[in-house]
Design a protein that fits this description.
- This protein folds into two domains: 5-115 and 292-307, 3-Layer(aba) Sandwich (Rossmann fold), CATH 3.40.50.720; 117-287, Dihydrodipicolinate Reductase, domain 2 (2-Layer Sandwich).
- It contains ten helices and 13 strands.
- α1 packs across α10 (289-307).
- The relative contact order is 0.15.
- Helices cover 34% and strands 21% of the residues.
């Protein structure tokens, strides 16, 4: 078989640049990008996407939908890093570790939606517990998360690193209308029957995420405690190459969580903390790694392997 042609549409954005850097120099694929004067030319973009084997879309939602609509070649496969198709019933969700068969589904799929950064942590914590019946599907879930400012895209990076960087807020909670676009994604792919309450924030650091979910044991079934919750997560992710579950003993020794602890890696660390009648679930990972470009390249590699 000839070397697969991979087209990155939108390689100048935060995620696109990261993906381009990861793929540059690989000899198992040919990388196609457009010159600066061609990136906004609909005809050139349509020609490129229809000529490739796998397209990686690193675009705003509407532009991603337009790119998919321009595909006429039935053999073209797509990984969409936008949020345009993450709840679409005909797209495969690109979180390889969320189900034992998910990696194979991704490998064989024609259309893959790359997960959002915050949903990766929330779904990673919630889905195994809901599937095991340790959490009721209608539990009133609250999710608090802080990300590095790169999660806000080029505008946020410029605000923190540009000429007016001294004016950038050191910490900012947003999504105060409680209608963040990640909420439907989290609800659908975790298996919740009710909308979770999601409160995101940006900090004055470039990349990294800490996401936490508090639980009240009195609202869970008798016998469900931190040990059972931890065992469920540990069993689900046993043998996973990039999702690790910290031991309860090591978690109890921690005095804080650093959102930058796993920066420049594709790992995600899950933790369970226990208190009097309460449990805190936590995830730490790089929003540009497992939360974006790392997941996209992981999904690409699964799809390339299926090409044989």
């Amino acid at each position: 078989m000839s070397t697969p042609l991979v087209f990155i549409d939108g390689d100048q954005g935060t995620t696109g640049l990261q993906i381009h850097q990861r793929l540059r120099g690989r000899n198992d694929l040919h990388l196609l990008t457009l010159a600066a004067d061609q990136r906004k030319d609909p005809q050139r973009r349509a020609e490129a996407i229809n000529a490739c084997d796998i397209a990686l879309l690193c675009l705003p939602d509407d532009a991603a939908r337009d790119a998919v609509a321009s595909i006429r070649n039935p053999t073209v496969r797509v990984i969409d890093a936008s949020s345009a198709h993450r709840t679409h019933p005909h797209w495969t969700y690109g979180f390889a570790q969320m189900h034992p068969q998910q990696a194979q589904r991704i490998a064989n799929a024609k259309r893959v939606s790359n997960p959002g950064c915050y949903p990766t942590g929330a779904i990673g914590l919630l889905r195994p517990l809901l599937q095991a019946g340790l959490l009721p599907k209608d539990y009133p879930i609250s999710i608090n998360a802080i990300s590095g400012y790169s999660g806000g895209g080029r505008a946020a990076v410029e605000a923190h690193e540009g000429s007016d960087a001294s004016k950038a807020a050191p910490f900012q909670i947003y999504g105060l209308g409680l209608a963040h676009k990640h909420v439907p994604e989290i609800q659908q792919h975790s298996g919740l029957s009710e909308r979770p309450l999601f409160v995101p924030a940006y900090g004055a650091f470039r990349q990294g995420i800490v996401l936490t979910i508090p639980l009240q044991l009195r609202l869970l079934a008798p016998g469900v405690d931190a040990a059972r919750i931890h065992a469920c997560l540990e069993q689900h992710y046993a043998g996973s190459g990039c999702v690790e579950v910290m031991s309860l003993r090591h978690a109890q020794e921690l005095t804080g969580l650093d959102p930058q602890a796993l920066n420049d890696t594709d790992a995600m660390r899950l933790m369970v903390f226990e208190g009097e009648g309460q449990v805190l679930l936590a995830a730490v990972f790089d929003n540009l790694g497992k939360g974006a470009a790392g997941a996209a390249v992981e999904n690409l590699d699964l799809m390339l392997a299926a090409l044989g």
